[in-house]
Amino acid sequence: MLWIMRFSGFFSAAMVMIVLSPSFQSFPPAEAIRSSHADSVLRFSTPTHSGDKFSFRRAPAFRNAGECRSPKVANYSVCDPSLVHVAITLDVEYLRGSIAAVHSVLQHTKCPESVFFHFLVPEIGFQSLVRSTFPELKFKVYYFDPERVRNLISSSVRQALEQPLNYARNYLADLLETCVTRVIYLDSDLVVVDDISKLWSTKLGRKSIGAPEYCHANFTKYFTSHFWSNSRFSGVFSGRSPCYFNTGVMVMDLGKWRRFGYTRRIERWMEVQKTSASRIYELGSLPPFLLVFAGHVAPIEHRWNQHGLGGDNVRGSCRDLHPGPVSLLHWSGSGKPWLRLDSKQPCPLDSLWAPYDLYGHST
Ligand SMILES: *[C@@H]1O[C@H](CO)[C@@H](O)[C@H](O)[C@H]1NC(C)=O
Ligand SMILES: *[C@@H]1O[C@H](CO)[C@@H](O)[C@H](O)[C@H]1NC(C)=O
């Protein structure tokens, strides 16, 4: 708790920045390449859930406000139509971030008991940790077998972008119960500071996914010249107006996803990357998503992904917010707030992440 006090000055300064002057400098989102699973070093030893190396404080119980819809099915079975579904990955490296993200969702929604979390894990053993941290949480843990994608992953510029769990979002439609036809996917390095039910009720129209789009970003650079010079590849974008979007915050229509077989379409592009004479893109899990969806994305307000707060990938410098209101803060980029706070070298906006951190011993 000491550091919360220490950085409370930063905190107020940052709040003032948000309220009075949402941005000092805008930066190309393109550079905030991928979010989770960036180049951070493992800080935890293997989780020994009963041991003291890896403990989270218990979050308070969060209760629904009076106006929340009551469950249609007894005990909120996962198929209850009044639920808001959120999917997020849990792994040792980003666990602290994932727990903070969940905490932030619960804290800002009017109907926390109506949120159902779907946790994708690369190894067994997170169930009891989640249960002890959030005793009343509605959740289910799904094992995502890293082998499922390992053969499809080609080496990328940033080693960390190759984490199999990074690709788990491609498989949500297969993993989740078929009664779940919409899900919000969230990365592990973000906090939600608004009611997630607003994001949940986004209208997707005829589109299969929704995300904030960044049409001023230079789309060309996500693919190689080999890709652009070969119409067999680049022809995929003809008749489309593709824009960059960040895959760390998406509203996904899983019904359409299943019907149109998007998982397989994404995998096919990964196979092309793997087998073509020369790479068609350099990054990890993002380009296949762009290939399938860019230009076919329902636009969501930018407030739902204020990304890039992890800092510049090359220089590691701090970043400011984009102009406009903020509903979700995303530390995509190379730095993570918990590492910078621990190392006593935080960026000013890291103090906005700190209140959601539950890592540490209960007293
Ligand atoms: C809800 O679940 C609890 C515990 O599993 C069970 O005891 C109770 O009977 C259930 N209530 C209903 C209405 O099904
Ligand atoms: C976009 O990026 C490509 C490849 O990096 C570059 O050749 C091109 O000049 C850029 N276009 C603009 C408008 O910056």
From TrEMBL:
<comment type="pathway">
    <text>Glycan metabolism; pectin biosynthesis.</text>
</comment>
<dbReference type="GO" id="GO:0016757">
    <property type="term" value="F:glycosyltransferase activity"/>
</dbReference>
<keyword id="KW-0812">Transmembrane</keyword>
<dbReference type="InterPro" id="IPR002495">
    <property type="entry name" value="Glyco_trans_8"/>
</dbReference>
<keyword id="KW-0472">Membrane</keyword>
<keyword id="KW-0328">Glycosyltransferase</keyword>
<dbReference type="InterPro" id="IPR050748">
    <property type="entry name" value="Glycosyltrans_8_dom-fam"/>
</dbReference>
<dbReference type="Pfam" id="PF01501">
    <property type="entry name" value="Glyco_transf_8"/>
</dbReference>
<keyword id="KW-0808">Transferase</keyword>
<keyword id="KW-0735">Signal-anchor</keyword>
<dbReference type="GO" id="GO:0012505">
    <property type="term" value="C:endomembrane system"/>
</dbReference>
<keyword id="KW-0732">Signal</keyword>
<keyword id="KW-0325">Glycoprotein</keyword>
<protein>
    <recommendedName>
        <fullName>Hexosyltransferase</fullName>
        <ecNumber>2.4.1.-</ecNumber>
    </recommendedName>
</protein>
<keyword id="KW-1133">Transmembrane helix</keyword>
<feature type="signal peptide">
    <location>
        <begin position="1"/>
        <end position="32"/>
    </location>
</feature>
<comment type="similarity">
    <text>Belongs to the glycosyltransferase 8 family.</text>
</comment>
<dbReference type="InterPro" id="IPR029044">
    <property type="entry name" value="Nucleotide-diphossugar_trans"/>
</dbReference>
